[in-house]
Write a structure and sequence with these properties.
Length: about 500
């Protein structure tokens, strides 16, 4: 991994240039100049005698500059200050740019991470303050020429929001002019960060050796192309170039924010896996909230059937549970993932109900009625938090956003035309699924749920489905029993942790 070095001259009070951006008051002369030309020759512009030192190993082969740094390195008649280096300029304009200087695209952090991943010598950050401020987390080495002069104001060493970043002193020298040359390196500490495309190999190299659900590299890469996984939704904990933890958040291909944490993994070498996992999850959730996510993504942990009898599965669950709770995901629901396949046969229907299309308002009204007294944990939670009206609207909006078609939706009716419930066949990016079903409170306990589920299954089978999936809470015993009667078998268990939401003020 290549290193980024910020080599810069400053005043005693930490300014790299005056208010006008000029730094002639920081002289380049005497034994300081000799030392820099001998040890850091690439940092001196060509017109000042800079070039790789043929008698020493080449320290840098790349320089990063902002517009002020680029212009400060130019000779009166020059346009390429460091032709012995690959030169990148971070600027909104290419005006007056030499063909040898390349305009750096996009986000400086992502660009530098990609540079670091390539083969080559070190990268020199020429400045200035705004660029250095954006890249402070990426700086591996800080070399400061501190001149014995104070200016009171000017361009600072860094211009960035307050965020203390620790460096370790590794070398310090004093020259005859009174200049001190001080070298600092980044502490060998853990970095929690979202990834970029340059980190793809790091992300996909992680494998999980525990009996819990995790995301294989092929699936991650495939869904990355579709936008369901994204670099900015993928977070890692990194130390000394090694990934010690990984969190993969998933969302709809057209979504602005992720919906769920699909996979959390911390390397077994970490002493407190739960603590690091919690720290990584908290960092991701905080970033999503700052980016405008109205609802924080939940955490889905998929477990094999009968996992409580497997000590390895219990151990893998325990530290993840502790991490989720410590990260603030304190609401937990246990859900069953069920599957229907043709060998189970079509579930029988009593023929007591008919199924009709309906308007959005009619479906919303049935959602409202079904929500009252529901045993579904998510529905009950939403009703308690936001009221029946808003909870029903959220359900409608969610299923409208699923891959299933709105035209599949049906209202279940009794022989006299009254509303008995609703049937919403739906789909995920992977399978046809049951979607949503329910019976209005006054008709529950009469077996109508079997007819609604039979109708959904029939619709999916006629559309060619060879596998139909469904989920229900373990606490919702009547619904679980209905699935069992219809031939749906339990394939997996999911533990779902989510952040508690404050009820709206009245």
């Amino acid at each position: 991994m290549r290193q980024l070095t910020y080599y810069v001259g400053t005043t005693l009070d930490g300014f790299v240039a005056g208010p006008d951006g000029k730094s002639e008051f920081l002289p380049f002369e005497g034994d300081l100049a000799a030392a820099r030309l001998a040890e850091y020759p690439e940092t001196v512009p060509t017109h000042g005698g800079g070039a790789p030192n043929p008698t020493a190993g080449r320290r840098f082969d790349t320089v990063l500059m902002d517009r002020a740094g680029y212009e400060a390195g130019l000779a009166a008649d020059g346009t390429s200050p460091y032709p012995h280096l690959t030169q990148y300029l971070f600027s909104n304009t290419a005006d007056g740019l030499d063909p040898a200087v390349e305009l750096a695209p996009g986000d400086p952090v992502a660009f530098v991470r990609a540079l670091k991943a390539r083969d080559g010598a070190g990268i020199w950050l020429r400045g200035g303050a705004d660029l250095a401020g954006q890249l402070i987390e990426e700086i591996d080495e800080l070399v400061v020429e501190r001149h014995p002069v104070a200016t009171g104001s000017g361009v600072p060493l860094f211009r960035a929001p307050f965020r203390p970043t620790a460096f370790t002193l590794t070398d310090s020298r004093v020259f005859s002019s009174g200049v001190t040359l001080t070298t600092y390196t980044k502490e060998n500490r853990m970095r929690l960060r979202p990834t970029t495309e340059a980190d793809l190999d790091l992300v996909t190299a992680v494998t999980v050796d525990e009996p819990v659900g995790w995301i294989e590299a092929d699936r991650y890469l495939e869904e990355l192309k579709e936008g369901m996984y994204r670099p900015e939704w993928t977070w890692i904990a990194e130390q000394d170039g090694r990934v010690l933890a990984r969190a993969l958040w998933w969302g709809h291909a057209t979504g602005e924010h992720p919906l769920a944490l699909d996979c959390l993994y911390v390397d077994p070498s970490v002493e407190d896996r739960a603590a690091l996992g919690a720290e990584l999850v908290r960092a991701g959730l905080r970033a999503f909230a700052e980016q405008g996510a109205a609802k924080l993504p939940l955490y889905n942990l998929t477990l094999p059937q009968g996992w409580r009898e497997d000590p390895a599965a219990v151990a893998a669950t325990d530290w993840r549970r502790d991490a989720a709770l410590a990260a603030g995901l304190t609401d937990v629901v246990e859900r069953l993932r069920l599957e229907w396949t043709p060998d189970a046969g079509l579930p029988a229907s009593s023929g007591r109900l008919t199924f009709t299309e309906g308007t959005d308002e009619e479906f919303l009204d049935v959602f409202r009625r079904i929500a009252e007294g529901s045993l579904d944990g998510e529905t009950r939670r939403n009703v308690a938090l936001m009221g029946v009206e808003a909870a029903a609207q959220e359900e409608v909006d969610f299923y409208l956003g699923c891959p299933g078609e709105r035209s599949w939706w049906r209202i279940a009716r009794t022989p006299d035309g009254g509303v008995a419930g609703l049937a919403l066949p739906s789909a995920t990016p992977y399978n046809r699924n049951v979607g949503y079903l329910g019976v209005v409170p006054e008709l529950r306990g009469r077996g109508y749920v079997d007819d609604v589920l039979a109708e959904i299954t029939r619709v999916q089978v006629e559309a060619g489905a060879e596998l139909i999936t469904a989920t229900t809470d373990t606490d919702n015993a009547p619904m679980a029993a209905a699935f069992a009667r219809a031939g749906y078998r339990v394939a997996q268990t999911r533990l779902v942790w989510s952040a508690p939401e404050a009820a709206p003020a009245s």
